[in-house]
Amino acid sequence: MRVVNVKPADRLKDPKIVSALAWPGDLFTDHGWCYEAWSGEDPMVLDNVRFLAAYRRPSVLDTAEIERAWSSVVDGEQLAVAEHRLVGGTASG
Q1: What would the DSSP string read from start to end of 48-62?
Q2: What's the mean per-residue pLDDT of the chain?
Q3: Is 30 exposed, middle or buried (0-12, 13-18, 19+ CB in 10 A)?
Q4: pTM (2 decimals)?
């Protein structure tokens, strides 16, 4: 398991942010997980990560839709194929 925390590079100068990034690392590594803090990434990539992070909250997505998505994904297939099928296409591997 790998957990990644993403912060813009300019925020890493703030001691509160540095502290906030440190304690989860200790917790995860104590449980045998890898932990990384990323910064300095392309602003567009960070914007995409922020957008996707919103969907980790259960209240954002309908549980039935999540189950539908999981049940339609075939192990080992390309993400684009599954995405096409989920939006109503019929593409297969």
Answers
A1: HHHHHHGGGSGGGS-
A2: 82
A3: exposed
A4: 0.43
